[in-house]
C-alpha cells in the first residue's frame, strides 16, 4: 500500500545440474503501483489577545502514509474580505519547504498572531500550499481567522452645541 520508488532485484542462477545456464543473472523491476497521497490543510481560528503573540497552528495532513519523503512549500498571505495585514496583525512566513518523513501523515505549521488593543474586524489570512513532491495538493489553502476581542473605542463625547435660534 505504501507509495514507493520502483525497486529492482537481482536473480542469480547458480550451479545447474544437468543443464546449461544461458544467462546467469537477470534483473527484475517491481513497478510501484500505489498512488501518491494527497495533502490538505485545515482552517484555524484564534482569539487575538491584547499583548504579546498568539499561536495559530495549522495542521497539514497526508491522506495516507507514504514510503517516500513528501515535500510541500507553504507561505502566508493576506486573504479574504477583511484581510489581516502581514507585519501588523501577524508575522508573515516566506515560502518554506516542509518534509513529511516516510510514514509521517501530519505536520504543524505555526503562525504568530500579534495581539493588539485596537478594535478591528475579525480578519483572515491564508496558509497556501504549492509545489508538492510525491503527493498531490488536494486543498491549496487553509484560512486563518483572527477574532478581534477589542471593544469599539469609547466615542469622544461630542459637545452638544446650543442650537442657535434666529
Ligand atoms: Ca485585542
Ligand atoms: Ca488588522
Ligand atoms: Ca489585529
Ligand atoms: Ca484588535
Radius of gyration: 29 Å
Helix content: under 10%
Report the order of strands and helices: EEEEEEEEEEE
Overall pLDDT level: 89
The count of DSSP E runs of length 2 or more, i.e. the number of strands, is 11
Q: CATH class of the domain at 35-147, anyone?
A: Mainly Beta
Helix and strand arrangement:
Elements: E1 7-12, E2 25-30, E3 38-41, E4 44-47, E5 53-62, E6 70-78, E7 96-100, E8 106-114, E9 123-133, E10 136-137, E11 141-147
Parallel strand pairs: 3-10, 4-11
Antiparallel strand pairs: 1-2, 3-5, 5-8, 6-7, 6-9, 9-11
The structure holds calcium ion (4 copies).
Describe the structure.
By secondary structure, this protein is mainly beta. The protein has a domain at 35-147: Immunoglobulin-like. The chain is 0% helix and 44% strand. It has strands at 7-12, 25-30, 38-41, 44-47, 53-62, 70-78, 96-100, 106-114, 123-133, 136-137, 141-147. The radius of gyration is 29 Å and the shape is rod-shaped. Residues 48, 116, 118, 120, 148, 150 line the site of one calcium ion (CA).
